[in-house]
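Lay summary

Proteins are chains of building blocks that fold into shapes. Our project writes down both the chain and a compact code for its shape. Here are two examples, one after the other.
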Amino acid sequence: MKIIVTGSLGNISKPLTEMLIAQGNNVIVISSDIKKQAAIEASGASAAIGSISDTTFLTATFKGADAVYAMIPLSFTEPDLGDYLHRMAQNYVQALKAAGTKRIVLMSGWAADLVKAENVEHLFNELDASITIMRPAAFYTNFYQSIDLIKGKGFIGKFLTLRYSGLWALLTGKTGLLMGNYGGEDRIVFVSPKDIADAVAEELLLSPGENNIRYVGSEEMTCNEAAKIIGSAVGKPWLKWVLLTNKEMLRGLKMAKVPEKLAETLVEMQAAMHSGKTMENFHNHQPKMGKVKLADFAKEFAAAYHKK
């Protein structure tokens, strides 16, 4: 099969490309970074260098493909995240329609249907194609963005310097803390990008009669249980995940000079997780859990943590 993979050599796209190549597929990887071309070609795939904001480029790349894995990289430099996601989704729809692509696997998020700005799934309904919407849970790899903060660097005064990563981190004195307007004893499903890649690879080779939604997770636990696993791996077994109110989170984001519309969207995303609605949707779909446990990922995290 000729399969197009977007997302360059990212956390999901790299293992996905490796799997598809191993299966004997003809894989073309889209990347906006010319510096990634050599690595893409070394993996056995072909490189298509261009931007998903360029519909002419997308259309030309999609033509003749049996299947396309489509993802929109989140941008936290865009003042209006919802507007950005809708623009990129519309670019995909236009290009897929023009190219006549019949099998599409679209990366979404497990709170996408609960957050108005994030929900672009419906835009793909106009396509005459078989579409699977992937809704993965909270990524293990989000923890990487918190390494400096867990180490206690980069703080302003007593309060916090915030950096979005799908979770929020803060270290005060000798006590490690993860913070967000979800956390504490909230139960969350976490997921390994490798398990997501496995699920996407399966879906790309299928052609269901109707469009469908597939949730993907690796392990379910409370946020504090996750914090303990990560903390123990780096020698901070006291690591806690503190639950903030929506107002506290929004205030912190504004202090960090995050644009107002973007800040409101980020708070809404995490509030959906705290509400339990994301968990309810996940359980209603009864997905099979992946193989990679958080304790496995914590070993990789600890290596990166101590190396940095």
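And here is the second example, written the same way.
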Amino acid sequence: MSSIEALAKIISAGVQDIEAQCAARGVAYPTPDVVCSSETDTIQNEFSSQATPIIAAAYQLIATLSHPQPYLLGMGLWGYFPTALAYIDATFVPDILREAGPKGLHVNEIAAVTKVHPGRLGRVLRFLATRHVFEEVAPDVFRNTRLSSGMCLGKSVKEIVESPLDRWDKSSGVAAIVSLNGHENMKTAAYMVETLLDPVTGWSEEPTEAAFQRGNQTPLPCYEWLEQPENITSLKKFPNAMRATTHYNSDKAVNEGFEWDKLPAGSLIVDVAGGIGNLTMALAGTHKHLRYVVQDRPAVIKAAQEHWAAKMPGAVEKGFVRLEPHDMFDPQYIRDASVFLLRYTTHNWSDKYATKFLTRMREAAQPTTKLIIIDGISDYLCRDTSSIDDIPGAAKPAAPEPLLPYPDSTIGWGYLMDLNMLAMMNCQERTVGEFVTLLGGAGWKIERICRFEAPLPQQVICVPA
């Protein structure tokens, strides 16, 4: 069987299997013309692991059948997808079409809401319709598909027009991250080549010497830039965008995996750079025999106090949870921690800086202290994993050939996020080997890895070396 036939078989058999299971349950797998809803989300989430190799095979089949010239020329222009989507968010199109209903709306009426050029808006909508983000049902008449309806903000168009800066609040965050990708991230990406070719910045690990600084003509690191008054729009969208990156079942990657229930009563868990404490709150709600400390910058801890008072009243007052200001680059003052926790922290820093805060925790660790890093792991795209096979949980079961070994990685946004982190702050997502090197330089070693299905993060369980 040729690779083309094998890929086609994976697609055909996989689709038939999903359809058969849906039919047996009396449901239909959502097609693009079905508006996004909690019901469609539930079905897609349930079948995500089965759909993943089908999607990966479809991508690979396209690459296999494509001539290099049109394929690479098209890929070179893919940057217009995020900018087009950001323009769609800025003109409120998904919610305008949501109110218009299944018959759709003429582009002249869509454009009238935000007073933009109707012909140019129509060209953007038609471009996105080639990838089924919208559907053109009659000449210049467009309606939402399931994909574009995923950007809806859940507010009336009148409310959005009256307060456009607040439009992302209390939404799913999808529109906010689409806007972030199309504005701030694309501006940064445009300067990535010259930043990487520069003999200074191309080798730098400083968060102030990334493509972001060139793109925004600023000496400030990303987070400080966001806090400047003139960047209020970017600041408003950022926390909403981060909500879209959180998987619906993300607490699973906190409460499961490591055996929290086996820790002795009174064991101290220290959530380093823990923000307002959402990770700790997920643990504290289940594992009440433990004690917890959330550490972060003073301004964040102040917000955390309000958050805990509203969401878990009494936990702080009774001493069950402590909220304490601490800079993770300063010496760690807690010396009796059973577990130090880091969630989505290591990927925010280059090795130079990550080594510093990991070393601070190692200096404060007891021989029995564990370090648990909850973060993404970049998979290798080869089948030879012999270099990491001695770490329990490090190697993943590989998909059959001719598929690339790990379909969940190839269709996800992990590798894109890695490049985005490089461009924004000179930091990175890491492979297992890169984690081994980083942790070894700070006095830790990986004991094992607790794996979860993508897009959930993984748990890297470490002990003092």
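What can we say about the second shape? The chain has 22 helices and ten strands.
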